[in-house]
Write a structure and sequence with these properties.
The chain is an alpha/beta fold. The protein is built from 13 helices and 22 strands. The strands form five sheets. Strands 3-6-2-1-9-11-12-10 form an eight-stranded mixed β-sheet, with helices on both faces. A four-stranded mixed β-sheet has the order 5-4-7-8.
Length: about 425
């Protein structure tokens, strides 16, 4: 039987009763004959509580010490879970990230995995033990310091271990039972997807879907790890994320994703000459500020506006850098708009089906929702709108593309849903 890697999020292990429930699920998997490796997050809001305590002590905690503190949450949950499994009559062992061989770079609070040295895990599996690994953490091979992997780090830990162990599947257990065509809290009739490609899931994760973090999907795609996103509170099949197959039906639209965690920056009257954009975005990169959508207006009188989005949480930290950049390049100044949101339409089928963008824009126009920025890829269309309009935009687009019923593009049979000329009128 193939190795199964399971990951349980903070909600799944939020109490001792839930930890016992997770232990029963793990033991049931092991009793089917599978060697089992489990990755756990910290219990409930433990990480947020630890972060709050750190900020009470110091407004700017030293990154190394912060990692030492935050890594404690997963160590608590891994130990309790291992105890619960042993109490059920199965042998188990808990390992920290460093003990499990998760080797990272030296970047504290946002480290990246560079290697997985799984010898100790394999020895424990050979001895018939269930292995419980603390997620979200590793050890720097250069400094030997504890590091943490940032948001979604436990997902990344699980996928990295699945890749290193050649696991049959990596099951991501959470408080929802799969990936939906939209956030069910915003669109009550959103439909669960049975399968999504890595490509689709990457776009959805990058555009605001919180079920899987972007880095974990990138890792899964690079190492062809099959993911199964499912609920820890029932036994229903969830959503599989895997490589696309020519035999698979291609959804015209897989989902409508939204993100209200970004802010929009506009640098006004920027000199329009070579090297200016490199200077602006190079300076932001040097401050570890990630930029998402970018639009540059047509030049007038040798000057133009540069507009882009970045995480709203980085806005206070970016203010000094933006002021300095504007002065250095001779811009007239900059403004920030924090009350915006991004709405994205994702689907592999749109690559070969014209009219999707037109229908999306027409839907928003008829509702009086103004589009402030547009960005596209071959399988995604993203727009920036005012934050107050985001949820309404998601519901309207979801309905326009008939996602509750499942708009499927059967390219192999030539059955392609058409968009009528009346729907495109006025675009």
């Amino acid at each position: 039987m193939g190795i199964v890697v399971q990951k349980y999020g903070g909600t799944s292990v939020a109490s001792t009763d839930r930890i016992r429930n997770v232990a029963r699920r793990i033991v049931a998997t092991a009793e089917k004959g599978h060697p089992v490796v489990v990755v756990v997050s910290a219990m409930g809001h433990t990480t947020d509580q630890l972060m709050g305590q750190a900020l009470e002590i110091s407004p700017v905690p030293r990154a190394r010490e912060l990692d030492m503190l935050l890594s404690a949450g997963e160590r608590i949950s891994m130990s309790l879970l291992s105890m619960a499994i042993i109490d059920m009559g199965r042998e188990a062992i808990s390992l920290t990230g460093s003990q499990a061989g998760i080797v990272t770079d030296t970047t504290h609070t946002k480290a990246r995995i560079v290697d997985v040295r799984a010898r100790r895990i394999l020895e424990a599996l050979d001895a018939g033990k269930i292995v419980i690994v603390a997620g979200f953490q590793g050890v720097s091979t250069i400094s030997n310091d504890v590091t943490t992997l940032g948001r979604g780090g436990s997902d990344t830990t699980a996928v990295a271990l699945a890749a290193a162990l050649g696991a049959e599947v990596c099951e991501i257990y959470t408080d929802v039972d799969g990936v939906y065509t939209a956030d069910p809290r915003v669109v009550p009739d959103a439909r669960k997807l049975h399968v999504a490609t890595y490509e689709e899931m990457l776009e959805m994760a990058a555009c605001g879907a919180r079920v899987l973090m972007l880095r974990s999907v990138e890792y899964a795609r690079n190492y062809k790890v099959v993911l199964h996103v499912r609920s820890s509170f029932n036994n229903e099949q969830g959503t599989f994320v895997k490589e696309g197959d020519e035999r698979m039906e291609k959804a015209l639209i897989s989902g409508v994703v939204h993100d209200t965690s970004e802010a929009m920056i506009r640098i006004r009257r920027v000199p329009d000459r070579p090297g200016i954009a490199a200077k602006v975005f190079g300076s932001l990169a040097a401050e570890a500020i990630n930029v998402d959508m970018i639009v540059q207006n047509v030049s007038e009188d040798g000057r133009t506006d540069q507009t882009f989005t970045l995480p709203r949480a980085d806005l206070p930290r970016s203010e000094e850098a933006l002021g300095r950049i504007a002065a250095e390049i001779g811009a007239e100044g900059w403004t920030a708009e924090p009350e915006i949101g991004k709405v994205s339409l994702v689907g592999a089928g749109m690559r070969s089906h014209p009219g999707v963008a037109a229908k999306m824009f027409q839907t928003l126009a008829q509702a009086g929702i103004n589009i402030e920025m547009i960005s596209t890829s071959s399988i995604r269309i993203s727009v920036v709108v005012q934050a107050a309009e985001v949820e309404r935009a998601v519901r309207l687009i979801h309905a326009a593309f008939e996602l509750p019923q499942g708009a499927i593009l059967r390219e192999a049979h030539g059955q392609m849903p058409e968009i009528s000329s009346s729907e495109l009128e006025g675009v």
